[in-house]
Specification:
Structural class: alpha+beta
Largest sheet: 2 strands, antiparallel
Helix content: 40-55%
Oligomer: single chain
Number of domains: 1
Radius of gyration: 15 Å
Distance between the termini: 28 Å
Number of helices: 2
Order of helices and strands: HHEE
Number of strands: 2
């Protein structure tokens, strides 16, 4: 069963969401669903002591903190 959710975004957030949708070839809803899935993984893995990061090759470029 699908549930509807109404969310208000400011102009900057709306523009970012639209740009992401264009870049990914999806809808704004698609972007939000992908973001939710990524955050779900990040939270689950952080509970096991792992962290989220940006990796290039075998080198961690940035660690993303604050997801708990």
């Amino acid at each position: 069963m699908a549930n509807k959710l109404n969310v208000q975004f400011n102009d900057r957030q709306t523009k970012v969401l639209e740009d992401m949708a264009d870049a990914l070839g999806t809808t704004k809803s698609g972007v939000l669903k992908t973001a939710l899935a990524l955050l779900e993984v990040a939270i689950r893995e952080s509970k096991d002591g792992y962290s989220l990061g940006v990796v290039k090759g075998d080198k961690v470029i940035k660690e993303i903190v604050g997801i708990e």
